[in-house]
Amino acid sequence: MEIRKYQQSDCRELTELFYNTVHTVNAKDYMEEQLNVWATGQVDLEKWSQSLQEHYSIVAVENKAIVGFGDIDKTGYLDRLYVHADYQGKGIATAICNQLEQAVKGKITTHASITAKPFFEKRGYKVVEEQQVERQGIYLTNFVMIKER
Length: 149
Known about the structure:
globular
């Protein structure tokens, strides 16, 4: 597996990986209506790419296919961390997260899904609060988590 910096040409593949991961991996913790508002399948590629370019963003590649990605901003907010459903449990999220955490100084904050919470807890993140995020009138539970360093 290779980890490299995000390139604009990756954007469409990342949005597809995001959609598919949410709708398969997160399906055990969220109802279908929640998954549908979280990952609608309708993304603004320009906005996604701009956000990924403004953050420190990396992708994991195996056999020329992107199998995971993540990004963190300058303030230490770990925004996205997604691994392809077929590559779960192979250390890809750990490898991506290791690089993201090394890219910034100080504490790191993330808003972890129910699914991702145990992964972040194993990495030393602590839950600050549980929150309900509203999207199109549907509420999704996630957790504000912080890793002090």
